[in-house]
TrEMBL record:
Annotated region (Disordered), positions in chain: 1-66, 107-154
Coiled coil: none
PROSITE patterns membership: RT_POL
Domain of life, per lineage: Eukaryota
Organism per entry: Mytilus edulis (Blue mussel)
A single GO molecular function term of this UniProt record: endonuclease activity
GO biological process, one term: DNA recombination
Protein name: Reverse transcriptase domain-containing protein
Length: 1223
């Protein structure tokens, strides 16, 4: 069989005529020169370019110039020496290989002189030979008996272990060489893989690519999955090749079975060779299946051994993994150790079986990002500077570490990583030498993990419990670093190189690794019934009785000692106590209080007073003081209220200084106020923990109209004042909590713990954290809430409640009985109150003013403009009389009734239209239109109220004056057009003509257009290829995070269907149809472009075989697979990638699209999420897609809409400057 190779693949062949002859090489002659000192001749070998090669053992000739570079000469000498040693190693290696071949594979033949010297020779076609696509000639060239050159022995020297057979046809050998080195083209590969000839025979089950079992696949890391996919692709190729060969073997066997077959002995020999080849294919398939090393970082060794023992079929581990690892599945974890525990690990230094595995205890490997070790620039190495005293300390510490075998003295080598060292004093007077691994940590992969904290320890302490502690000495040093990675933990001291052989302090992976190891220890103790909490090398041991705590100490010390850890007797507390020092704090189980040590209190007071006395200091000094304050918060109950002003000023100064901590900043008056609180109150501060369950639960909610709260059966609500209503909703939610606490104050007099339920997560976070940094206003309100609680000795806990469960408080925040209560105008009241009640005025708050409840509110007329209505009503005591409060209409209906649209309804009913008919007419305006109309109707009401005009019966002159007022306020032509439409919807008519169609109003708007013409958007649009490049990098989809997968899916849907965020938001699984190569979604909800007689276009997500990285079909399949467990009963396609994984709004989808655009480098200050419609359709038109198809896909009614608003020029990258700079 002759393999045909295309002309462009035969790059090893020359273009000249006739066979190429090997170039004759001549040995360079030694050049004799005399040194400048006349000490005799010196022999130098120079190559053709004149470079000097210095021979070992000879003196080096200096240049004839005056500058004699000894450094270069020494370097060349070292290079020559290294080359000689390399050659010697190669000779030794070849001898070992020869012995290996002679012993194992060369029993019958002498393994010498059997090398094909012409194996790598390049053959040129003969004269007149066609070098096109014709098959190579089958004629075999005769070998010329030419003499060996003096360098031909190199071939034998380096290939003395290779045994070759008879030669093949020259062209066949050349083609095999090219294919085995370069492979075949992708097109030819796909063609062969899809060929029916490669289909598996029906009865041959072994010719199937083996897949990883799903249970094991789910445990693998993304990079491991990528490697497994590559191995599977390689295995598929091997299986297809074996399929071809198996059919050849079967055909030969059929031919030999015939009686009239000629040349049977020759054919039988060919059959035997083919069967041997097939056997090698099968062995290669087995070797690929047994790639256990790729699973060890993710699955423990004992489970891998258990799985590998199972025979594989079409599944790598037999397909029944759940039964195979039923007892050991709990040992599998992701992101754990490199390898697993030994079966018997009570002797930590013992090796045991599985020495090749990466055991976290014996052979800890540094987890570099993408498994790529760092390459250090030697010029960036900066050694620390020490004085004489510090040098002595370092000498002593190095001597200690050498005796403990923590560090080793080594020689410098390539690819090592040098880090500086520094020393820090301990509390016991000793010093700790630390390796500064700041630069190395940048190359170590960060992995999120959970560990016990001081708070989790407090939650386990019962009242009057006994406590002890066990501290481990040199904890990190008990974990060995793998020898291959020790070169990355080196430092230089006095021109000597040292490396850590154990886990050093300061490496990023150390806390996670050591916590994982100790969790196994504590888990074993928990099974014995003991309660322990560990924080790296320190642990807190608890017991309900003194004896129980003593037993806990005994078992813990015995276990950690048997594992090879060293217990620090000086720091440990073996005697059970009810007051113990743990992690720098005193814990008292009798009073359930945490306090600071006196020395820590002195340090805080001293540092705060020093900083308070300064007007200017370095940012680093402020950061240091902040670190001290924040570290003391577990023992300072209200300390969180008095450090955020300092933190905010530090962040502001750091931004101005471009991250330079050595820059100076001002110590502001607000900072000094917080510092003064710390210095004055630190000695009296303490914190109570485990307060018990809350005694009162209050539900609160806020809307743009007002706030509401519910306590048991008591309900309360009020409108926002003019100063409050414009605040952000997060601020309003916090204000709702504040007003609810003040309103229910009488019910909280005997209460210590209060629980707040709110549906705003920001409010929950700011309350539980006693403030925050991001929002100044939210921090101010949260601080006000907690100061009020401190004054009334109330402890607050906030919890999130879903909005659909918070209906009572929501109702109170939207429905008010304005006639049930009155209060005087605030300005007039305060003016007279200052003179009449001077003593009580300061104690009087704005919300403390309570009006008199009227016996019959209907007898009192509505308020005029001098009365400020504030409704605070307890509906449990008195029901509202106003008819608008009756019934149980939805909150959406109430939003309409109180936002100006209710007047449109009333106008319709005044014309004799029934309420049901009015409701249907009101539905003709969509929610977005109603929001738009609401703004201008309110402005119209205010405008008429200020001029004391009737808002229902007016003149066209007043309408024109209103529009002129809006024009002077800066509104554009389109905004004024919306105002005209709102007034027309309101029902204003003049001369039986709607106000919007009145000739004067139309003429007025034309004048507005000429005076303030509409500014068109940029005629350019961003290039889709910019985003596609980013989406390609988010591949393969099986390895990326759920967040990136969600963002990629949303962007691909938006681009491939030119759809709005609203359409993506309305995609539902119940309306999805899965077909062979696409997903189809039907949308039955109303879209923005929906109109009578219009059919919503289907959203079709088709496969894209040319580039699987951009295939939205594959992305959606992976997304459905990932979200099947978190979807529950949710029907919406797109879910939030963060808990609680509910459906998202249109604005969230738009924000996701903008985030992808921003990551791709598109200016999102100019282009919004909606620009994807213009970008995709413009790109489609540029690629000659018919306009009719574009209109149908995007849902536009005419080409005018597309041409006027969406068809834009695609912006291309300006490469002129780049090309100029590259010249």
């Amino acid at each position: 069989m002759i393999i045909k190779v295309d002309e462009d693949e035969q790059h090893m062949k020359g273009k000249g005529k006739g066979p190429a002859k090997p170039a004759e090489r001549k040995c360079p002659k030694p050049i004799v020169s005399k040194s400048s000192t006349g000490s005799g001749p010196k022999v130098n070998n120079k190559d053709a370019k004149g470079k000097t090669l210095v021979n070992k053992g000879h003196e080096v000739s200096a240049s004839t110039s005056d500058s004699n570079n000894n450094v270069i000469i020494n370097m060349l000498t070292d290079m020559r020496n290294e080359q000689s040693s390399t050659n010697k190693r190669l000779e030794d290696m070849n001898k070992r290989i020869d012995v290996l071949y002679n012993d194992e594979y060369d029993d019958e033949y002498d393994n010498v002189g059997d090398v094909d010297e012409d194996m790598d020779e390049v053959h040129e076609p003969d004269d007149g030979q066609d070098t096109g696509n014709e098959p190579p000639c089958k004629k075999q060239k005769t070998l010329s008996n030419r003499e060996e050159s003096r360098f031909s022995s190199m071939n034998k020297r380096f290939r003395s272990g290779e045994r070759c057979g008879d030669k093949l046809d020259e062209h066949l050998a050349d083609n095999i060489k090219i294919i085995f080195r370069n492979g075949i083209s992708e097109e030819k590969y796909r063609e062969l893989m899809k060929d029916e000839k490669s289909n598996r025979p029906e009865n041959c089950e072994g010719l199937v690519p083996v897949q990883t079992d799903q249970l094991v696949w789910d445990l693998l890391w993304p990079r491991t999955r990528t490697n497994d996919n590559r191995m599977r692709q390689c295995q598929t190729t091997v299986v297809r090749g074996a399929t071809y060969l198996s059919k050849v073997v079967n055909r030969l066997d059929t031919i030999l079975g015939k009686e009239d077959t000629q040349n049977k002995p020759e054919l039988e020999g060919i059959l035997d060779d083919c069967m041997d080849s097939l056997a090698l294919f099968g062995h290669a398939n087995k070797e690929i299946c047994l790639g256990e090393n790729s699973l060890k970082p993710d699955v423990k060794v004992n489970i891998v051994s258990c799985l590998i023992a199972q025979p594989f079929n079409k599944w790598l581990f037999g397909g029944d993994v759940s039964k195979t690892v039923k007892k050991t599945l709990e040992n599998v974890f992701r992101g754990g150790f490199r390898g697993g525990w030994r079966s018997s690990w009570n002797r930590r230094r013992g090796r045991g079986r599985g020495g090749r595995g990466r055991d976290a205890v014996q052979h800890c490997y540094i987890e570099f990002t993408d498994n790529r070790p760092p390459i250090q620039n030697k010029m960036s190495i900066r050694n620390s500077k020490f004085n004489l005293k510090e040098e002595k300390i370092v000498d002593i510490e190095i001597e200690k570490l050498l005796k403990m075998n923590v560090i080793q003295e080594v020689e410098s080598e390539i690819n090592e990583f040098i880090s500086p060292i520094f020393v820090r004093p301990k509390k016991n007077g000793e010093y700790r030498m630390i390796l500064n691994l700041k630069e190395l940590n940048k190359h170590i992969e960060y992995q999120h993990f959970k560990m016990d904290s001081f708070e989790s320890a407090l939650n386990l302490i019962k009242e009057n419990a006994y406590m002890s502690s066990v501290d481990l000495r040199h904890a990190y040093y008990s974990i060995n670093i793998a020898e291959q990675h020790r070169k990355f933990l080196r430092f230089v001291w006095k021109e000597k190189y040292f490396q850590y052989s154990c886990l050093p302090n300061g490496i990023a992976m150390a806390p996670r690794l050591f916590t994982k190891i100790m969790k196994v220890v504590y888990a074993s103790l928990h099974k014995m019934g003991y309660v322990n909490v560990g924080y790296i090398d320190d642990s807190l041991l608890l017991g309900d009785t003194e004896l129980e705590c003593k037993n806990n100490v005994t078992e813990t010390v015995n276990m950690v000692s048997s594992l090879g850890f060293i217990v620090h007797k000086d720091k440990s507390v073996f005697t059970p106590k009810k007051c113990i020092k743990f992690l720098g704090f005193y814990i008292d189980s009798e009073t359930m209080i945490v306090t600071l040590p006196v020395e820590k209190q002195d340090t805080i007071a001293k540092e705060c007073k020093q900083l308070q006395s300064k007007n200017k200091c370095k940012i680093r000094e402020v950061a240091r003081v902040l670190g001290i304050l924040i570290s003391s918060l577990p023992a300072v109950e209200f300390g969180k209220l008095y450090y955020r002003k300092i933190e905010r000023e530090k962040i502001k100064a750091l931004k101005l200084a471009m991250g330079d901590f050595d820059s100076e900043m001002f110590v502001t008056s607000e900072m000094k106020q917080d510092l003064k609180w710390w210095s004055d109150n630190i000695y009296t501060q303490k914190r109570k923990f485990n307060r018990g369950n809350p005694q009162v639960i209050i539900q609160t909610d806020a809307s743009k109209l007002g706030w509401g709260a519910v306590l048991n059966e008591q309900k309360i609500g009020s409108r926002w004042s003019n100063d409050e209503k414009d605040n952000h909703i997060n601020c309003l939610e916090l204000l709702a909590v504040y007003y609810a606490l003040k309103s229910f104050k009488d019910d909280l007099n005997t209460v210590e713990n209060v629980k707040i339920l709110t549906d705003n997560t920001t409010a929950v976070s700011y309350i539980n954290s006693m403030g925050g940094i991001k929002s100044i206003e939210c921090n101010r309100i949260a601080r006000k809430i907690w100061i009020w609680c401190f004054e009334h000795q109330i402890w607050l806990i906030a919890t999130h409640i879903p909005g659909k469960l918070n209906t009572k408080a929501d109702y109170q925040s939207r429905n008010f009985n304005d006639q049930i209560e009155w209060q005087l105008n605030k300005n007039n009241f305060e003016k007279h109150d200052r003179t009449l009640c001077k003593e009580d005025y300061k104690r009087q708050g704005r919300r403390a003013v309570c009006g008199t409840t009227l016996a019959n509110p209907t007898m009192v007329c509505s308020s005029n403009e001098t009365v400020n209505k504030q409704s605070i009503c307890y509906q449990s005591k008195q029901k509202a009389i106003d008819s608008t409060i009756q019934g149980h209409s939805s909150s959406f209906r109430k939003d309409i009734e109180f936002d100006g649209m209710s007047d449109i309804r009333n106008r319709l009913q005044n014309r004799g239209i029934s309420e049901k008919t009015s409701t249907i007419i009101m539905a003709s305006w969509r929610s977005g239109t109603q929001k738009q109309y609401k703004t201008y109707i309110k402005k119209w009401f205010i405008f008429c109220l200020e001029r004391k005009e009737d808002k229902f019966h007016t003149s066209v002159e007043l309408v024109l004056e209103f529009l002129t007022y809006l024009f002077e306020c800066g509104l554009s032509y389109s905004a004024l057009n919306s105002a005209r439409s709102a007034l027309s919807a309101f029902g204003l008519t003049f001369d039986n003509v709607p106000v919007g169609k009145h000739p004067l109003v139309i003429r007025f708007l034309k004048g507005v257009y000429h005076l303030r013409p509409t500014v068109h958007n940029d005629v350019n649009i961003w290039d889709v290829s910019i985003v596609l490049r980013l989406l390609r990098r988010l591949s393969p989809v099986a390895d990326i995070s759920v967040k990136d997968l969600t963002l990629k899916l949303v962007m691909l849907i938006a681009l491939t269907n030119a759809t709005r965020s609203q359409s993506i938001h309305l995609l539902k699984l119940s309306n999805m149809q899965k077909q062979k190569d696409c997903f189809r979604f039907k949308i039955f909800d109303l879209l923005k472009q929906s109109r009578p007689g219009y059919k919503n276009p289907e959203v079709i997500l088709k496969s894209f075989p040319p580039d699987r990285r951009l295939c939205v079909y594959l992305v959606l399949k992976e997304y459905l697979k990932r979200t099947v467990d978190i979807r529950s009963e949710e029907d919406s396609l797109i879910l939030s990638y963060i808990k609680p994984h509910k459906k998202v709004s249109c604005s969230t989808i738009s924000r996701w699209i903008k985030s992808i655009m921003c990551r791709a480098g598109i200016d999102t200050s100019i282009f919004k999420a909606h620009s994807t419609r213009s970008a995709s359709t413009s790109k489609a038109k540029q690629n000659n897609v018919p306009v009719s198809d574009i209109l149908a896909k995007a849902g536009w009614s005419s080409s005018t809409t597309f041409g006027k608003f969406y068809d834009k020029t695609v912006t291309t990258t300006d490469v002129f400057a780049e090309k100029v700079l590259q010249i």
